[in-house]
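ok so heres the complex, two chains, lmk if somethin looks off
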Amino acid sequence: MRTASIRALDHYLPDTRLTNDELATLYPGWPSERIRSKTGIVERRVVAPGEFASDLAVRAAERLFERTGVDRSRIDLLVYCTQSPDRFLPTTACVLQERLGLGTSVAAFDYNLGCSALPYGLAIVRGLIDAGIASTALLLLADTYSRFIHPLDKSVRTLFGDAASAVLITASERATPALGPFVLGTDGSGAQSLIVPAGGLRQPVDAAALVERTDLSGNVRSDANLYMNGPAIFEFTARRVPELVRSLLSVANLSLDDIDHVILHQASEMLLEHLRVTLKVRADRFIRHFSHCGNTVSSTIPIAMQHAVESGRIQAGDLILIAGFGVGYSWGANLIRWEPDPWNAPNF
Amino acid sequence: MGCEPDPMGARPMERAELLRHLAAQLEWPGLEESTALRDDARWDSVAQIDTLMLLQRDVGVSVAADDLQNVRTVRELLDLVDL
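and the predicted structre for the whole thing:
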């Protein structure tokens, strides 16, 4: 059967580092070690002035091209996920087509999701490849939440980092799908729990939107900044993610024992460990990799997965369960059979 | 609303024992039933998430985030889980 499979992954982190020691000087009562123990993060990377999500996406894609030697003229689908678009219009994917030197026959579009970006993106790409509409897809995911975060809001600044990732997905002939099944879901009742209220048409950034307020915990933000209701996000995650994983395993007619690696959205150490224990995932099958980049929203799973592949932890033939969840609320999970074709395969 | 038994379950716990667990988890020496939470900077989102996790793990109940964020004192928090 003709179906989609992942050929390669890569990512890019901006150069600027934001360490716990720097943050601790801003937040009384939050020493560096406390930030590390609660978040699992040592440092996060943030964009410099004049550097934007699409710039990170270009760097991630160029790294992937360089490492794999892929002929970029063969790419016929470019899908870009971000919540930090350059502009309302044009579509950032169109700008990326030109910046990456892709052919004009490429289909290109954006979609807007956060931590569930990878399962959704893989589902979209697999659908277009399996239907014969595309053959070689570049999935780019990039976010710069630091642009939305008030410097004195420790509830989010300690967590989030900026990053981009690139996933090359191609058509191949296989006996069984390499991507899927998928379980996707949405609950818009949680929209207010992780939000930048101002900046769109419904609430433009005007003087009122820039008025700063200090909450009871001493965090400062305006309506133009990112707000996260941490306890509500935890409640959603603790309830939804175990259901999501069990649902996916049920659809796939598998048990957790059949899964070689579990990669959840790398939200924070507290949350990941809670989910690992709740799901009863063996520690050696549970992949974590975010201590030096933070919660990079759409890129957490690709970054963790690339690291696990390059460190030899993920081997050819392994079955991986990924699950993303967060802003929206939106969630998705799918299986990945890690069988990348060699770079020099005849159809590549 | 309120709390629901967690399907993962946990052993029964006395009110005083839970208070000790809370004080340890939150690294909050001297935490008592009369301690005011709402206006204390230590009762931040991390402390609230710590509390939700502790209740789920050690008591076996899932408390709604809205309810937790409305408590004013430790006593009201303990009342939430019906101990």
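quick notes: Chain B has four helices and two strands. thats all i got rn
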